[in-house]
Design goal:
Layout (H helix, E strand, L loop, with lengths): L1 H22 L23 H10 L8 E5 L11 H10 L4 E2 L17 E5 L8 E7 L2 E6 L2
Parallel strand pairs: 1-2, 1-3
Antiparallel strand pairs: 3-5, 4-5
Length: about 140
Amino acid sequence: MQRAVIITATLLACAALVVRVVSRGGPYFTQPATIVDHVGPGKHEIRDALVLLPRVRPLLPRGARVTCFRPTAGGEQQDDGSNYLTAIGMLPYQRVEPPFTAGLLVPRPYLIDYVVALGRPFTHPAYKPIAGWPEGTLYKVQR
């Protein structure tokens, strides 16, 4: 009797593990691209930043003022702290500042130098795209 209970519990635990792994999606036998790829069943909100920022880093001069956010309606997003804080950690040789520093109300001389826009386009008239990837685009201010 005890042996049957142990076998049943083991099979149930294995089935639960398989369901959990399948619900989080593949790849199953290769290393994921980022640390957040298997956190949940959907795409994590900072995945694009984790993939894009290492590609952007070589294009940015040391000490450049940069911000990173996911644009809403073509403009800066005030509450995109997760992507902004990810950029702080991944761009140690640049000065990462909050998204509002690329806003429409900021006078042109005070606009931030570079914007990393994730997913959607950034339509501020003072910025021009200089490089693009599937995850987002790098913009530079035109003074």
